[in-house]
Each structure stands twice: as structure tokens, then as C-alpha cells.
Amino acid sequence: MAAISVIVPVYNGEAYIESCLRTIREQTLKDLEIIFVDDGSTDHTLEYLRKYETDDIKVFTQENTGAGGARNHALKHATGEFVIFLDVDDCWADSNTLKLLYEKAKANDALICGGAMINLEKPSESAVKYAFRQEGFVSFTDYQFDFGFTRFIFSRRLLEEHQIRFPAYRIYEDPVFLTRAMIAAQRFYAVPEVVYLCSGSHQTILNASKTVDYLHGLTENLHLSARHGYAQLHRVLFDRLTTAASYYAE
What is the number of alpha carbons within 13 Å of residue 148 lying toward its C-beta? Predict the structure, then answer.
């Protein structure tokens, strides 16, 4: 069993595959299982991925269902103790990122462990919720935020025991996944180091069907926050519903 399964969904990402593999291979933690899922690409993505396929790099393909469906496909095949999700055009902060997260999780018996994330398109706008001032356990009751799932590693056993998967939405599927995982774990181990760099290049352009999915995902998290008494998260979600969601719907 590998220490971490790295899951990468890819749709028409042929231009990023080489750099994505480089950021993975440069990690000082070598006990990795790498899983790429081609999400019905129409370019040469699958052809490129097949060139790199080895015992440690698994490649799967499926009809296009969106990134969430591709991640679920990978989870069916993952065998790592932990899983982490990487978008093909993003990268980790440095070569020690996965070693840091894995060792901190193991040393503290944490089911979820994560650090800070920076959007490279807007580095000066790193929100408070995307960074942690000090190391240690954080209760989800105190945190109550649902964005930035890629900066965490998740115990695969936690995901399997609670049957946590990405819902079948083309957008806003990852906040639902993160909320479900956090509710199951109740807390996570935080490190102050920056661990994830988001390129911002894969921001979704909304159409009518994706707007409907956005509203469904937002509604699902509203139900979760209400059911579990997360008033702070509920207010954040309601603000999104009355601002961004209303704008997208119009």
C-alpha cells in the first residue's frame, strides 16, 4: 500500500501533463501511487498519458462526466493510505509538500491534514480561510469553510467508511466533498506552510446546466450546514446564494 494516492483528473490537458508529472516526481516522498483519469478528452491527452503509464502511474479513461466523476473513478482504484487531489495545471509549493503532510498526519493520527493555498493569478488576495497561522488540530466547528479541498490529504479509510464521494455536479462538487469529509472527521491537522499553488487557468465558464449544478451543490451544503448546526458556514453559503449564485442565474 502506497503512502499517498495522487489523483489527477484531466480533460483536454495535453499541454500540462509533462509539468504535472514533474511536480509529482520531484516530491521527496516517493511512496506514491499516481492515478490519472482522462475525462473524455477530445485532444491528445489520453495518447500522452499512455506514454507515461507504468506500475506506479495508472491511467484510466471514461466518458466525459466532469472532474468530480473522474475523481470518483480514480477512488475506486486507489490503494494509498491517504489520497490527495491535484489539478493538472496546478502544482505543489515545493518538493517536500507531500512528505510534510504525510508525516504530520501520521505523527498526530490525523484523518485530514492540510496547509495554505495561493492562487497564482491573485497572490495578494489570499483569504484568511486559505491559510493557517499555527500548526495543530482545528475543529471543523471552529473552521466552517468549504473551499480549497486540494490542499488537504484525506485518509482513504475515512472516505471508504463514510462512503464520501463527489456528487454528480459539473461545478461546486468539491465543496460538497470537503464538507462531507470534514463532518466525518470532525477536525483536521493544519500546518502554516503553503502547500498548494492554484494556477487559476481552469476556472469554469458557466452555462445554464453548470449554473443549475452550482445551485444544487450550494443547496446541498446549505442542508448539510443546517443539519449539523454549522451556523457560520450556513451564513457564508447563504451569502453566496444571494450574491454569486443569483448573478449566475440571471
Answer: 24
Cell of 107: 505523527
Cell of 39: 475525462
Give yes or no for residue 92 having a pLDDT over 90.
yes
R_g over Cα of the chain: 17
Cα–Cα distance for residue pair 173/166, rounded to 1 Å: 6
CB 169 within 8 A of CB 143: no
Count of CB atoms within 10 A of residue 94's CB? 16
What proportions of the chain, in percent to the nearest 5, are helix, strand and coil?
A: 45, 20, 35
What rounded mean pLDDT belongs to the chain? 94
The answer for residues whose C-beta is within 8 angstroms of residue 95's C-beta and 6 or more apart is 26, 27, 28
Task: Say which residue, 205 or 219, is predicted with more confidence.
Answer: 219
C-alpha cell at 209: 446546466
Q: Please state, in angstroms and rounded to a whole number, the distance separating the CA atoms of residues 195 and 103.
A: 14
Please answer whether residues 82 and 10 qualify as being in contact, where contact means their C-beta atoms are separated by less than 8 angstroms. Answer: no
Give pLDDT tens digits for 136-188.
999 999 999 999 999 999 999 999 999 999 999 999 999 999 999 999 999 99
**Has this prediction a pTM greater than 0.90?**
yes
d(CA 70, CA 237): 26
Q: How far apart are CA 240 and CA 238, in angstroms?
A: 5
98 neighbors 5 (Cβ within 8 angstroms): no
